[in-house]
Amino acid sequence: MDEFARKGSVNLKQEVIQAGWCVSCGLCADMCPYIKTVEDRIAIVHECNADEGNCYKVCPRTATDYSFLHRQIRDSDDYDYILGGYRKIYMARAINNSHHESGQYGGVVTALTAMSLREGLVDSSLLTANSVEDSRPEYVIAMDEENVIRAAGSKYVVYPTVRGLYQREMSQKDKTLVVGRPCQVTGLRKMQHYTSVAQGKKVEFIIGLFCFWGLEYAFYNYLEDELGIHSITSIDIPKNRGAIIKTSSEVHEVPLEKVRTFIRRGCHSCFDPTSELADVSVGSTESETSWCTLISRTEKGNELVNKAISLGVIEVRSYSSELEEQLREAVRNKKARVLLEKHETVSVNRSYLRINDSLQEKLKGGSVS
Amino acid sequence: MIRNEPGTTVILTGNEAMARGAMEAGVQFCASYPGSPCVEVADVLIRCHDRGIYGEWSTNEIIALEAAAAASFSGMRSICVMKQNGLAVAADFLLSLNHSGVRGGLVLVVGDDPSAHSSINEVDSRHFARFAEIPLLEPSTVQEACDMTRWAFELSEKVQTLVIIRVVTRICHARGNVVLGELPLVSEKIPRIEPWDRFFCVSLAHLAVHVRQEQAREVFEECAFNQYEGPEDPVSVVVTSGPSSLYAREALSLLGIREKVGILKMGATWPVPRNYILNHLGKSENIIFFEETDAFLEQNITSVMAQFGDRKYHFFGQASGHVEGERGVGVGEMSTNQAVKALSKIFNIDNPLVRPNTSDIKEILRGGLPERELTMCPGCPHRSSFWAIKTALELDGREGFTLGDIGCYTLGALRGGFYLLRSVFCMGSGAGLANGFGQLHRFGFNQPVIALAGDSTFFHACIPALVSAQYNNANFTLVILDNGTTAMTGFQPHAGTGLTGQGTSTGPLIIENITRGLGIKTEIADPHQLKKTVELLYRMLKKQGPKVVILRKPCSLEASRIKRRLYQVNPVECIGDSCGCSRFCSRVFGCPAIFFDNEKGKAYINDLLCTGCGACSDLCPREAIYEVDTNQAEVKMA
Amino acid sequence: MKGLKEPLNIILTGVGGQGNIIASGLVGIAATMAGLKVTIGETYGASQRGGTVMSNIRISLREDFGPLIPTGCGDIIVAFEPLEALRIVSEYGNSETKIIVNNEPIYPLAVLMGESDYPAVNDILALLEKIVGDVITFNATALAREAGDPRVLNMVMIKALAVSGYLPFPASYFDEALETFLQGLPSEKREVNRRAMGVKVELF
Predict the structure, then answer these.
(1) Does C171 score more than 60 pLDDT?
(2) Which of A107, B21, B503, C68 falls between 20 and 30 A from C104, CA-CA?
């Protein structure tokens, strides 16, 4: 893409990091010795002197054309202007109780990941887990079911998990399954299609999660320093409620309005709440807590789901049209807010999107609430 | 060095010669803090403990001078050695010790460093002798360094005050012939403080200070170290001291006026021996001062001439602008070049010294000759520490900065340390300044502050700074770069190393026990474990109050003496210039053992220089650097 | 002893860590044993860490000289590194100067980092020949490696100086000087240094 010509770390720093659009996906973090990360922060620590760089190409906040990338991963042109390209939407849940209980909303991600490892479809998986020491998120390279289960459960604070692809532990692995947020999925597809970075070729499957926003690490500092909550064991943010914070002995609730003040700024510019470019996408379903929404998108994703069904790893039901309508409305509204650059308190960046006019018009036609 | 063969001629450094002179005088006590250029004086004496000498590395120079004074009060001949900056540290005691006087001869060797070859500044310590009103001797050759040191103990006992021997780098590190004198038998006298002894600095004693100074002046009127050579009744005389006298002499020869111009070489330079000076200069017309670094002789002697001389003299020196050091008037060291320049101007003779024609060089080597920048040694843990600090500060994002201090890590101000340091002053100044910055938050200042200190610097000067920080709750992080030695000056041991200067074991003082004992949050990390170190620093920068992070890893030069390891680059895996590396190890990390071969487009490790620390291997994004099995490697370690 | 220029100025130069100081010490001991007055000026300390080092050796029958050689007054230059040879010659050389130079380079930081180019060694040697009298060059580092350790390069260079005929006293003084210096060193170190001094140098 011409847009990437002669653009490198200097541009990444100016246009994304210093401009405040970074979503801490981790595609650039640890990609080379000059880009370092800690917690949810990314910094380009030293100039690399290269005029043109992979870091710029893989970033989900530099020029991104979802329709184009969609065509690269599916051999079909049917592209739904709200949900992206897909084959089928299901209601799904894991059959195995341990997946079910540890997972959130049905345990489907855990089940699919564990199955892929067991069946030898991949030799490793890159997941996000809460650390044993301080419950903060960290990347995990899981090769067995026990570690997959350790990574189960939703995370609300962003973490640059994809940095795990560049670590020494991954260098001997050939095929890996990545579970990621939509920005991470987008970044991985950009890596596969705009660069020849070896890690891109290693990624065999991508399970994308639904995500409408993520929180900054500063949320933990707020909990600890201002609310005095230490030794957090879990954070859960059920629909329409505040954040439920559990420690070993207590349960706290932080009101949703307060939680929202910690939303990472770059998330307001996100155009892809359902991980359009994943092989399969998984997310919660409004009304149901033990079933989730499962979308199979690519050929690979479709085969994965069918295999999981036939092996009795997951069970599926049809997706009702009311649910589908609710999902479509929520996603369309998010997309429209970005296109119209409307947000009460933060600025929104839509300049990274490459989207044709007719798609834009269709999206903007929806209500913006 | 310690042979008892009087009359033999050997070749010694100036430092060794002073140690020898002290031994020939029967010195029994030596206290010092390491400082270039004179550290070896103490190095030698401390290792001669089987000659009845006790020598120690004190934690700082004021303690060293106090310890040496105690031995002197008890009747023993004692010596204290320090560099120019150390004398400033010891100044409080110096300016009070002159009031009480001494008992056994006490000699203070001060090493000045004109042109600051191994210092942050060039200080002319001779002013301290005048300030304290005590005798000052300046050797001009290595032999004189030996002879003056030996005599200085006698002088000190005669005048009953301490004597300063001021040397410069070009004496300390120069080597020259020394005729050995006799080594006395080890004294068996037991040191004692008598019931009537009182050693006070009290203002009533100020008169005694003047009296002793006057006594010294009388001795100096007849001192053999002040020498005149040249014509009788000279019209022009060069007044000089230290190695500058040799430069002046050679310059006069080169200019062909050696027969015409007198040279008054002063060895005992404070107090000024008035009569001696007037005898030799009183009837001359032109008096030329040639010394380094300040116009010390010039100011003192012109004042004497103005008060007691009987005619108008023409003075040439720094005030007249004729005499320059290598970097300007009063700046930089002297040399024969500078002497020729000055004298050719004064006597209106063409300068005979000619540089070769280098126009061809400029033509062929368009860029000129590449300079050799100073950087840390291969494998230096400071390089990794600087990289970790730089990374943590960038990630923190609040424009934090780093305050430097004195040691090998001072090189962090240069490219080798990513230009990280924002300040460098005296020992402990990093932690000291941080105390100030750490209070500015109440005015809206929010930039995180890191102060650096080496392990030796920590013991020398940082403990009081940490006490103040904890007491006043100053916000900063003191990063202690603990490489287990006093590296810059030659690997002397200190309180934290577990060894005394004499090689005896002593329970090491553990730095973290001290800082935690003060109640300060302290964490420890290995700087080569980059990820952990960065995370630790990042977290600490966010905390309030004073914090200590100890980055602990032995000096690579020391470590490589024990076990040699070696790394090499696999050219197949090395991606060199490509995105993902861009020559990180050679170009950015900058270890001098790593060279980037422009033709092959690959990095390469020089097996002569690599100390096997493995930092580059850990940082290589392609795992292209591997450890070589040194048993089979071609290069065998002797 | 041959007619001695008063003073005879010998410069040893190289990069910090090449063993300059040990080498100049040997020259000093040898000259002292030969009954001459010697003054040697050095800088070390920070120079260890990659900087240029220079030893100024002044030899005289009559008097003490200062430890710094004046501009253009270098009589003999022994250079452990070619770039340093050129640097020193540019300041201290004259048309009568004799140089012995090791032709294996050590790259300064700027070159290692890819920011400057190191000049071609042949260009350096050609420039030296334009400025001074005699230029003798060889790969002393290689000879040192053969002797068992590239770090005894300094001994190979001193051997070359000893047999060059440029000095006013015979090479045998260096053997005595070497033994004095080797006292107190472990035996492997003594051996490798002796082998280096025993290297055949037939350049003169």
Answers:
(1) yes
(2) C68
Its CATH class, for the domain covering C8-197, is: alpha beta
For residue A63, which amino acid is it? A
Residue B440 DSSP class: G
Contact indicator for C98, C75 with CB cutoff of 8 Å:
yes
What secondary structure letter does DSSP report for B307? H
CB A33 within 8 A of CB A43: no
Under an 8 A CB cutoff, do B596 and C123 touch?
A: no
Q: How confident is the model at residue B266, as a pLDDT?
A: 98
H-only helix segments in chain C: 20-33, 82-92, 109-112, 121-131, 140-147, 153-163, 172-182, 187-197
- Backbone φ and ψ for A87, nearest 5 degrees, come out as -95, -50
For A51, name the nearest residue in chain B, comparing CA atoms only.
B579
Question: Is the pLDDT at A285 greater than 90, yes or no?
Answer: no
Task: For A36, name the nearest residue in chain B, comparing CA atoms only.
Answer: B391
Residue C203, Cβ density class (10 Å: 0-12 exposed, 13-18 middle, ≥19 buried): exposed
The secondary structure of residue B341, as a DSSP letter, is: H
pLDDT beyond 90 at C97: yes
Q: How long a stretch of residues is chain A?
A: 369
Among B390, B579, B580, whose Cβ lies nearest the Cβ of A45? B390
pTM here is 0.92
pLDDT at B638: 28
The whole domain housing A88 covers 2-216+263-364
Q: What is the pLDDT of residues A85-114, one digit of tens each?
A: 999 999 999 998 777 666 666 689 999 999
Q: Is A329 helix (H, G, I), strand (E, B) or coil?
A: helix
Q: Which residue has the tokens 């809460």?
A: A130
Find the mean pLDDT for residues C60-70.
94
DSSP symbols for B127-159: HHHHHHT--EE--SSHHHHHHHHHHHHHHHHHH
For the stretch B406-444, pLDDT in tens is 999 998 898 889 999 999 999 999 999 999 999 999 999
Q: How many distinct structural domains can be found in chain A?
A: 2
What domains are there in chain B, each with its CATH number? Answer: 9-183+204-220 (3.40.50.970), 227-347 (3.40.50.920), 381-559 (3.40.50.970), 563-628 (3.30.70.20)
Instruction: Tell me the C-alpha distance between B628 and B567, whole Å.
Output: 5
pLDDT of residue C49: 60
